[in-house]
Amino acid sequence: MSAATDAMFAPPVNRAMKVLDRSFFQRTIPTSAARIFNPKDISRCRNDLDKSRDALKNRLMPIRPDPDEQRAQKGGKCLLLRPEVIHNDRNTWSPKLQELESNGTVGVIPYQLHLDYDYFTYSEITSAIIPPPEKKNDDELPTGFTLAGHIAHLNLRERYWPYKYLIATVLADKNPIVRTVINKLDNVGTENAYRTFQYEVLHGPDDMNVSVHEQGCTFNFDFSKVYWNTRLHTEHERLCSIFNEGEAICDVMAGVGPFAIPAGKKKCFVYANDLNPDSHASLVSNIKTNKVGDYVRPFNTDGHDFIRSATADLLRASHSVPIFPKPKKISRSDPNYAKPEPIRTLIQPRVFAHYVMNLPASAITFLPSFIALYSNIPDLPASEIRTLFAPHTDVQMPMVHVYCFSTKSDDNVAESKSICEEISRQLGCEITPETPEVRIWDVRDVAPKKRMFCASFRLPEEVAFREV
């Protein structure tokens, strides 16, 4: 559509509105329509007039009841045309429209197109209510939000505080899944060790209990008491895709289980830990809900200690899970019913294949816990542990996936180098972007000059078996 047409379809403006008045957003646009005389011609006319660019192209349904009530009652339909097509000026019609009119397939008639609040989008309504930025570099109108179940989570800049209730109400109106809109009042990870935050309810009930579905799993939790970021769903999927059935995974900062539960679904053996008691409680519940109790063990302790204690526990533990064939539709009350025999058995490994450390504000500072990881385990000599990694076993040193924040650039070369330098400092061992199996993955933007990364590297043997 042209700029003039765009303006015709924009909502009316009221910068003085303090309480949302939905009835204010009414607009009638004088346009034209192609009256289709035979219902059998509707599909053909629509295709022809789309190709000839006579038909109105926007999010409106183009096929409408005929504006004549008697015709409409008999099933009469018309096709909306662009405002530039004037019903009584054939010079504004395409040759195709002229042809259809001449052969009696359609008639071109005036049409009063009425738009109301339901037609306009969230950004259109808020732009009509909130004054634009005074300066070019000022914060733009907030259009993004995080969705967790029925909760929309905003992080409004100060400029928008006077309009926060209007923004929240429109957002809820335009997103049927949203019942509650909240605004964050502090910074996650700085005010609270559990990465929870203070919030205010801008719209709807103060109900923070949500249910989220991701990777075929269900996560239930109190959004006000645990950390959850829906925008990380692709990262959860990416990392979980690396895990293989039967591997052992150590999730050091597991939260409510976005890595641990899907890994358990893949039949990985997972030790999942979180320091936050509420996260741990949700994790325990989610393990049960998703029926991964044979594979996922929950813990509630300090991450520094957990890296070492989980490693030692796995070395000593003995656990296996029988895998049964898919059940046939046979009643268990049938006298001929016999419990099927397992087709194979998964045996829990003695060493972790992956350590996941999703606490980007400080996870790198947990890396010293890997120093002497295998050399100071009571009753298990390092020499015995080394045999687990002998060439004939195909068992490799574990991969470590540590999340962190860094600055932002176009190519992330400087950031990758800086992250590796900090990892090297924490481990006392040189790790560079060129080191084999090192990957610095760009996860997402966090702020204009801040990005979240995942640094993946194979734990050096000299670190894990270092004598201290």
From TrEMBL:
It is found in: Mitochondrion matrix; Nucleus; Cytoplasm. Specifically methylates the N1 position of guanosine-37 in various cytoplasmic and mitochondrial tRNAs. Methylation is not dependent on the nature of the nucleoside 5' of the target nucleoside. This is the first step in the biosynthesis of wybutosine (yW), a modified base adjacent to the anticodon of tRNAs and required for accurate decoding. It catalyses: guanosine(37) in tRNA + S-adenosyl-L-methionine = N(1)-methylguanosine(37) in tRNA + S-adenosyl-L-homocysteine + H(+). It is an enzyme of class 2 (transferase). Its EC number is 2.1.1.228. This is tRNA (guanine(37)-N1)-methyltransferase. GO terms for molecular function: tRNA (guanine(37)-N1)-methyltransferase activity. Keywords: Cytoplasm, Methyltransferase, Mitochondrion, Nucleus, S-adenosyl-L-methionine, Transferase, tRNA processing. One of its GO terms (cellular component) is mitochondrial matrix. Pfam families: TRM5-TYW2_MTfase (PF02475), TYW2_N_2 (PF25133). S-adenosyl-L-methionine binds at residues 236, 274-275, 302-303, 358. Monomer. InterPro entries: MeTrfase_TRM5/TYW2, SAM-dependent_MTases_sf, TRM5-TYW2-like_MTfase, TRM5/TYW2-like_N, tRNA_Gua_MeTrfase_euk. Residues 145-461 form the SAM-dependent methyltransferase TRM5/TYW2-type domain. Belongs to the TRM5 / TYW2 family. The keyword Mitochondrion applies. The gene is TRM5. One of its GO terms (biological process) is mitochondrial tRNA methylation.
